[in-house]
Amino acid sequence: MRIDVLSIFPSYFDGLTLSLLGKAQATGIIDLRVRDLRDWTSDRHRTVDDTPYGGGAGMVMKPEPWGLALDEIVDESAASSAGRPTIIFPSPAGEVFTQKTARDLATREHLIFGCGRYEGIDERVFEYAAERGEVRLISLGDYVLNGGEVATMAMIEAIGRLIPGVVGNPESLVEESHEDGLLEYPSYTKPASWRERAVPDVLLSGNHAAIAAWRREQQLERTRSRRPDLLGDDESASS
């Protein structure tokens, strides 16, 4: 998968060179290219923002740097036969990012992330981007961040680990929180007793059917107590 990121703070993404995603880049599974949006400005100050029409606080990101950047990246993608890209703008006004979203996006050939700043991006950028690719405005949740970089990093990590070959044991992905609509069951390791706290006996029993049943019940109980919104009315009311 090819992933392009547009940001005025490209160093934000240095952490994506570490651990599993770093290995995935080194082996060619993921082609991550972080671009500085200011490279597509033409004035000596490399200006990417201006005052909003209609007044109001703050500044708005100018459309032309975005248009030039998207043109270059999308044209590169077309030349390499990568197909029509999916262009993602983190936004508190977007759809909520979920594990289902991550699974969907992990199947795409080319993702472009546009990290807004200030009071946001000129609305015409989204309209123009829709002519060059599939546009998705996506939110991590009902809160506001200083910019799109943190949200983009979170999405890239969630998406990237679902790409075949990135995680060494793909079976581990199946049992994680949200994969089946429930939270993950609790995990334990050695020693069996630690500071007067014992590992549940069932996990030491060797009875795989009993262990599976216990883990399922733990998933349900955790979800009922912590995220009842993930359960249907009948299941959340049951015990």
From TrEMBL:
Highest taxon listed in the record's lineage: Bacteria
Coarse class of the protein's main subcellular location: cytoplasm
Sites where the protein binds S-adenosyl-L-methionine: G116, L140, G141, D142, Y143, V144, L145
Cellular compartment(s): Cytoplasm
EC numbers on record: 2.1.1.228
Segments forming domain tRNA methyltransferase TRMD/TRM10-type: 1-231
Start-end of Basic and acidic residues biased regions: 219-230
Span list, region Disordered: 219-239
GO cellular component: cytosol
Catalytic reaction(s) noted: guanosine(37) in tRNA + S-adenosyl-L-methionine = N(1)-methylguanosine(37) in tRNA + S-adenosyl-L-homocysteine + H(+)
Molecular function via GO: tRNA (guanine(37)-N1)-methyltransferase activity
GO terms, biological process: tRNA N1-guanine methylation
Gene3D superfamilies from the UniProt entry: 3.40.1280.10, tRNA(m1g37)methyltransferase, domain 2
A Pfam match: tRNA_m1G_MT
Keywords: Cytoplasm, Methyltransferase, S-adenosyl-L-methionine, Transferase, tRNA processing
Stated family: Belongs to the RNA methyltransferase TrmD family.
Description of how the protein assembles with itself and partners: Homodimer.
NCBIfam families in UniProt: PRK00026.1, trmD
Function: Specifically methylates guanosine-37 in various tRNAs.
Protein name: tRNA (guanine-N(1)-)-methyltransferase
Taxonomic path: Bacteria, Bacillati, Actinomycetota, Actinomycetes, Micrococcales
